[in-house]
Amino acid sequence: MIKKILFNYQNKSQLIIAMIGSFLGFTFLVTSIHYLIRVNEFGEGEEILGNNTMIIQKKINNFSSLKMTKNDFSEREIESIQKENFVEILQPILSNNFDVALQTDSELVPYLRTDVFVQSVDNEFTKIDSAKWKWAPGDEFVPIVLPREFLVMLNTFASAKGIPPISDDLAKSVGFKFTLTSPGKKEFEKVRIVGFTNEVSAILVPETFMKYGNLNFPKGEPAIITQLMLTVKEGLFGEFENYLDKRNLESKENSMIVGKLKSVAGTLFSILIAISVITVFLAGLVLVQYAQLLISRNEYEIRTLLRQGYSPKKVINSILLYFIKVFAVISAASIIAFGLLKYFIDKLLDKGGIQIDSGFTFLSVLAVILAFVIYSIVNYFNAKRGVLKTQ
Amino acid sequence: MKIQFNNVVPIPLNGIQHSNKSIWGNSFSLLKGEKVMLNASSGKGKTTFTHTLAGIRKDFNGSIRLGEREITSFSPEEWANLRRNHLSFVFQDLQLFPQLTVEENLNLKNDLTDTFATAELKSMLEELEIIDKWSVPCGILSMGQQQRVAIIRAMCQPFDWLFMDEPFSHLDEENTQKALALIARRTKNIGSGFILTTLGENHNFSFDRELNL
Questions:
Q1: pLDDT the model gives residue A286
Q2: Which of A84, A318, A352, B102 is disulfide-compatible with A2, CB 3.0–4.6 A?
Q3: Cβ distance B89 to B163 under 8 Å?
Q4: Across all residues in chain A, what is the average pLDDT?
């Protein structure tokens, strides 16, 4: 009966306009948060190196080939890059100054032996469990990260021998070993592949193994630092790229493109989130204003109910329940609209060759639930103030 | 529930000299079950009196006690409980819901307190000769018919006191007598009292007490 008295005789046009505004705001909000998360996740999982991790080196030109310019980094240069705003973490990549060969050590794969180039990076750049990315003399295995190109080469070789190709997972269980040599000295170390990378062309090993090799099998020439590994701060790829151009440095193009795309898309979605939040806020204000108008238009009805002995709590709860239903309709409609939008956007991205996770992101749905809860709380206090004022 | 007035003067009537027979500025008690007539001409504060006792107006000096409590100390929820179980009103402006039917107006109160069965409600309407208006919206009833609906609605709850502010102003003498008989029977059944404000007419009812303004 209270519902009939308070809501049945109201002009609903303002409510419908506010509901449409909120629905659009909620839909943009959930969509932009979802795609911001998906953009940031893009490319994760396939790569063992952390997000936004780049390897930089000096550009090689004809003068470098003639040894007229240096292509290694001095300590001063490293310190200078370290101070740049876009740098989150920066470490030099250590290269081997000893002879090392990798050979297969399993009956599952054909015999292959090749001299290799190894590099070491700090564990903070990789997604490998730190307990797995360590080595000490006497350990059973040296953990390594294998360039994916190396596995392709191995599979090409296997095909030529009529052996089935090796998957990433199988490669991790195949036996390999390193042969470390120096004049009059030879040592074998078993190797276990813990991941793959598209970013680095050398085999990655823990720093302790690199130091062990350089110390015990030295070639006599001092090791130089020709590459640096760094993590670029989220959204600062533009600054990073400008710096590389200015300082005649270069990075692998594909990771730069992905990074830049993520940076641009991330910025766009962040702007969309800001616009959505403003829309949700404004639509919320219109809804609150509608609720205030409803209370004020119903002043006689509310006052009469209270004078007949209706509890203020009961009247407040009736108003609250009505608006909770309104907010629930808005939230449900926006989640359904988001589901439809997502279906078409994902299809479009897939067509364009961008495969992203097709699941719903928890945070985006949580944002709608949060907006719903905030709307309800604001409306509760609004109704309480309005009803208690109408005595 | 005893009602105790101690030197109560509504703030708008502060500058006026009140006689020693007036309820304003004097002290008196109203005991449970008393049938009281408040007699005064227009503009003397009859509605102010009813609204003050209903907790609607708080602009007065002095003190009013309902039972053991100061009237100003009740919270909104306590007022709701009082208006549901202890104090009933027939306001001068009736305060019906014009868009609701007679049935809905009565049930709005009756459902809250579970006092009467539908047959009892209809019987009261019949007694006051408006049973044919059961399904008619109150907004299209005459003022006299609306007054009778408001009186029956005031019966639909338990109460210690019934406050009526000129409840028969639009009723002829015959209908007034019928309404008064209904009120007297109901108050007798539940052992409660009432205060009826009038413009001087006692409607041939023998009141326990008469108050003046």
A1: 81
A2: A318
A3: yes
A4: 82
Q: Supply angle C-alpha B85, B87, B93, rounded to 5.
A: 125
- Beta strand ranges found along chain A (DSSP E): 53-58, 87-92, 94-95, 99-104, 113-115, 118-120, 142-147, 176-182, 185-197, 203-205, 227-232, 249-251
CATH code, B87: 3.40.50.300
In B, minimum Cα distance to A304 occurs at B95
Most confident of A22-36, A98-112, A145-159, B67-81: B67-81
Distance from CA of A384 to the nearest CA of B (A): 12
A224 and A296 both lie in a single domain: no
Q: Are A334 and A357 in the same domain?
A: yes
Task: Specify whether A125 is located in the same domain as A63.
Answer: yes
Q: Which two tokens stand for residue B149?
A: 């609906």
Tell me if B151 is assigned to some domain. Answer: yes
Same domain, A77 and A220: yes
Give the pLDDT of residue A17: 85
Q: Report the percentage of chain A scoring pLDDT > 70.
A: 91
Give residue ranges of B with CB < 8 Å to any A CB: 54-56, 76-77, 79-85, 89, 91, 95-97, 99-100, 104, 107-109, 111-113, 153, 157
Task: Place B212 in a pLDDT band, splitting at 50, 70 and 90.
Answer: confident
In the sheet that A185-197 helps form, which strands lie side by side, from edge to edge?
A94-95, A118-120, A203-205, A142-147, A185-197, A176-182, A99-104, A113-115
DSSP state of A74: P
Q: pLDDT for B134-177, tens place per residue?
A: 999 999 999 999 999 999 999 999 999 999 999 998 999 899 99
Q: What is the ipTM of this complex?
A: 0.91
Q: What is the total count of domains within chain A?
A: 2
Chain B interface test: which of A6, A10, A308 (most B C-beta within 10 Å): A308
Write out chain B residues lying below 8 Å of A312, CB-based.
76-77, 80
Top pLDDT among B88 and A59 is at B88
Specify the pTM. Answer: 0.66
A241 and A97 in a common domain: yes
Say how many domains are in chain B. Answer: 1
